[in-house]
Amino acid sequence: MNTSIWIILLAVGLPAGILAGYFARKFWAVRESASAEARAKNLIDQAKEKQKEILIQAKDKALSVIDEAKKEVEERRHEFSHLQNRLEKREALFDQKILDFEERQQGLLDKIQRIEKMKEEIVAVKEEQMAKLVKIAELTQEEAKKVLLENTETKMKEELLARIRKLQNIGQEELEREAKNLLSVVIQRIASSHATETTTTVVNLPSDEMKGRIIGREGRNIKTIEQLTGVEIIVDDTPEAIVISGFNPIRRHLAKRALDKLIADGRIHPARIEETIEKAKKELALDIKKAGEEAAYKVGVAGLDPKLIQILGRLKYRTSYGQNVLQHSIEVSELSALLAEELGANVTACKKGGLLHDIGKAVDHEVQGGHPEIGYDIMKKFGLPEEIAYVARAHHEDAPKTLEGIIVKVADAISGARPGARKDSYENYIQRLEELEAVAKQFPGVEKTYAVQAGREIRVFVIPEKIDDLAAVKMAAAIAKKIEEELRYPGEIKVNVIRETRVVEYAR
């Protein structure tokens, strides 16, 4: 019975609960809908208000932009009006200048026509006068000209000769005075030594017994030294001395340094020789580098490649006519810098070019060609400018193309021509004097020639009947030019042409 009651209650209560839930849900749905509509309306009202504000701001901003645009248009219009006025003024001025130019052009054309007309009249008068002269003198124009020149030369010969001598003396005196002052000032400011040096090739020995030790058993020691250094060692009857013979001065110095070490040490055998020579090579390389750096520092040249410095240092062991080439290069650099200051040239280019002008002599035993071309190629290889590299060639050219080249050439001549700077053999000295006399003897009318003052002056005696005073002046200039073209010499050579007439009579 209880079970049936629960079933009846469940059957009645379940539909009632469903119906009640339905009406409750519908009520809450209607309420929620009314609330959502209210919120939506509120949002729409807010959006409309915001739209109004945005429209107002947009209108204000549009008005502001329109005002700014109107101002900019007004400014542009004012600027355009100003430019238009300027262009109109310039156009008017340009038109006026064109009119003036046309007037001047017309005036020039009129002048040209008048000049051409006058020229034609002058030519006609000249032809008429020449015809009259030919008719009167019965000579052609060329014959009349020749007679006139001969007469003028005859009459003005003495006066012309006197004027030439006067001008030559005045010009030569002034130039010599200025050149001497300039060179004397420059030379006095250089206090470098110019004593002659020679490459030492003799090794002194403590005793003659050392010769046998240097030769070694079956000559193995001396062969090892010669093979490793590339020189020839001459062992002769000279007491307590041996001679190192070799074309390369660096190798000779290396051999001498190694031999000095071996002699001082006393242990002479192939293994010790190899060790000593390697050590001497390292010491010599450091010495060469140090010599190059000291030379560059002394003359104030910076920024050179280390390899170029190494090549420069090799000149310490190179001599030319007995003069140490590195000392000569330093002196040329200093002289060139001072001359450049006096003459207003490029001091840096002269200083560097003077220091490196003989750089080719450091490797001319190993590279084919003359040292000017080798030096030029070396400097170009290490990135030096053409102005500096050209100096290597210029100091051996007859007429250098640049002022810096001329300055270094002069400084090179000064350094080489100092008393005692270079030595010359007797044979070379005699040959130079003979060549100098031979050049002067080539000219017709020369009777005798004498080279005096160690080749600094050439005295030329001419036949007075064949050479007059004017011809003697011309001959002196021609001989000087010939010497410059054919001979090489330090400093200058004075050409002295002597013409004298002697009249002998006897009183009886």
Instruction: Look at the helices and sheets and give the structural class.
Output: mainly alpha
**How would the global form be characterised?**
flat
What would the average pLDDT be, to the nearest integer? 81
Biggest beta-sheet profile:
3 strands, antiparallel
- Provide the CATH top-level class of the domain at 202-417: Mainly Alpha
Total number of strands: 8
Measured distance between first and last alpha carbons: 211 Å
Radius of gyration: 52 Å
Task: Briefly say what this structure is.
The protein has 508 residues and is mainly α.
General description of the model:
With 508 residues, this protein is mainly α. Among the domains are: 202-417, Hypothetical protein af1432, CATH 1.10.3210; 426-498, GMP Synthetase, Chain A, domain 3 (2-Layer Sandwich). The protein is built from 14 helices and eight strands. The chain has helices at residues 2-137, 141-188, 209-215, 220-229, 249-265, 270-299, 306-313, 325-343, 347-356, 371-381, 386-394, 403-417, 426-441, 469-486, and strands at residues 202-204, 232-234, 241-245, 319-320, 323-324, 446-452, 457-462, 494-498. The strands form three sheets. The protein has a three-stranded antiparallel β-sheet with strand order 1-3-2, with helices on one face. Strand 6 and strand 7 (457-462) form a beta hairpin. The longest helix is centred in the N-terminal third of the chain and has 136 residues, at 2-137.
Features of this protein?
14 helices, GMP Synthetase, Chain A, domain 3, 508 residues, mainly alpha, 70% helix, single chain, 6% strand, three-stranded antiparallel sheet, three-stranded mixed sheet, 8 strands, Hypothetical protein af1432
